[in-house]
Design a protein that fits this description.
Pfam families: FtsX, MacB_PCD. This protein is α+β, with helices and mostly antiparallel strands. It contains 15 helices and twelve strands.
């Protein structure tokens, strides 16, 4: 076997320029493949992290997945009920205290009950439509995505006394209001209540910064004429991956619709899977193109060394040895190119990680490209490169193994 290695090395070294070109082709393919995989995987991880961080892992609402069974269906053999006008039920989640206590007993995470209602925030003759959310500041701090996004004040300021409200800075700018100003909240029931701005937040998400306002739960209940009611329970789990199982159990036990974050973003997650398939298909194509360079040099060596092959076979080398020899040469070029490609890929990833750019129209927010530093990407690129090299070396190796030494020695074509 050592002799096979020596002969393979002699063949490759004898065509140093062509070998170098093939190695560079593989290296560039591997390098850009690693960089592309790191960038795309980093973008995906960052996007999923944003989903997980900015929304509850499980959200329980006062809706139900299927219509309630009507009492008449239990008494009469009815096929269908038509023209029914159900009485409006504004109680929200029935017996919220018991539901919250039951959840706290077993849910591995944090949870908070809220009352969400649609309304209008009014100040100085300007109106902004908003979701007014009644919260308990202590429990909300454990589940809210905006806890770390306050530019002034905090949720704790709501408990300081008086009618406080926390709004986004974009809403404040639209209203022309500042910290300490008094705004008026108008509910869909037509009730109004004055609140003092005690906190401003900026999440970078327009829907939140412009369309959400937080008040004490009791004030939201008064504003909506729904005493002691909540219509949402938001849950943040220690392990977000366990959200579907928790949602199923909650929905089975208490009957209300419970949606895991994976279900809420099912189409987006499916799109990410498709994107990954496309990414790795492109990586495979790049490696296949690089394999043509290896095929070219191994074919040339096979053609030029035909007489040497004949002599080796006449000396007792088997066909398997010939296949092994030229296949080894192709894999060696692929392996050398992969190692150089790793260096190129690492350099590209490091350079991309230093790129900073503005993402806010105000020019105040800076961010970096999301990069996934994973050795798996290097191994995948290596695997694709070696596979392409093996395929590129196989055909010339098979042709070399079939050479008839008598025909070559006699000078036959």
């Amino acid at each position: 076997m050592r002799l096979i290695f020596d002969i393979a090395y002699t063949h490759i070294a004898g065509r140093a320029r062509q070998t170098l070109v093939a190695v560079i082709g593989v290296a560039v393919g591997v390098g850009f493949s690693v960089a592309m995989a790191a960038l795309m995987q980093g973008g995906q991880d960052d996007f999923v992290k944003q989903l997980v961080d900015t929304m509850p892992h499980v959200q329980v609402t006062d809706d139900r997945r299927a219509a309630r069974r009507q009492p008449a269906e239990d008494v009469f053999a009815t096929v269908a009920i038509a023209g029914l006008r159900p009485r409006e039920d504004r109680r929200g989640i029935i017996n919220p205290t018991a539901a919250l206590s039951w959840l706290k007993a077993w849910v591995p995470g944090r949870l908070a009950g809220t009352l969400r209602l649609q309304g209008v925030i009014r100040y100085s003759g300007r109106d902004v439509g908003a979701a007014v959310i009644g919260i308990d500041p202590e429990t909300e701090a454990g589940v809210s995505p905006i806890v770390g996004d306050f530019t002034q004040g905090s949720f704790a300021a709501l408990t300081a006394g008086g009618n406080g409200i926390v709004i986004g800075d974009t809403m404040a700018n639209r209203l022309g209001a500042r910290m300490g100003n008094t705004v008026t909240a108008v509910s869909s029931e037509g009730l109004t209540r004055d609140f003092k701005i005690v906190g401003l937040f900026h999440t970078g998400t327009t829907a939140r910064d412009e369309g959400e306002a937080y008040v004490i739960l009791k004030n939201a209940q008064i504003l909506s004429r729904r005493p002691n009611a909540i219509n949402q329970i938001r849950i943040k789990l220690d392990d977000p991956a366990g959200a579907p199982a928790v949602a199923r159990r909650v929905e089975t036990e208490i009957g209300y619709k419970a949606v895991a974050w994976q279900e809420a973003n099912e189409q987006i997650l499916e799109a990410l899977v498709v994107r990954n398939v496309i990414m790795y298909t492109v990586v495979a194509a790049i490696m296949l193109v690089a394999g043509f360079g290896i095929f070219n040099i191994i074919s040339t060596i096979t053609h030029e060394k035909a007489r040497d092959i004949a002599i080796m076979k006449s000396l007792g080398f088997a066909e398997a040895d010939m296949r092994r020899l030229f296949l080894l040469e192709g894999v060696a070029i692929g392996a050398a190119g992969s190692l150089v490609g790793w260096l190129i890929g690492f350099s590209l990833i490091y350079a991309l990680s230093l790129v900073r750019f503005e993402v806010a129209t105000t020019g105040q927010e800076m961010t970096r490209l999301p990069i996934a530093w994973s050795f798996t990407h290097y191994l995948l690129a290596l695997g694709f490169a070696l596979m392409s090299a093996a395929v590129a070396g196989y055909l010339p190796a098979r042709r070399a193994a079939r050479v008839n030494p008598v025909d070559i020695i006699r000078g036959a074509t």
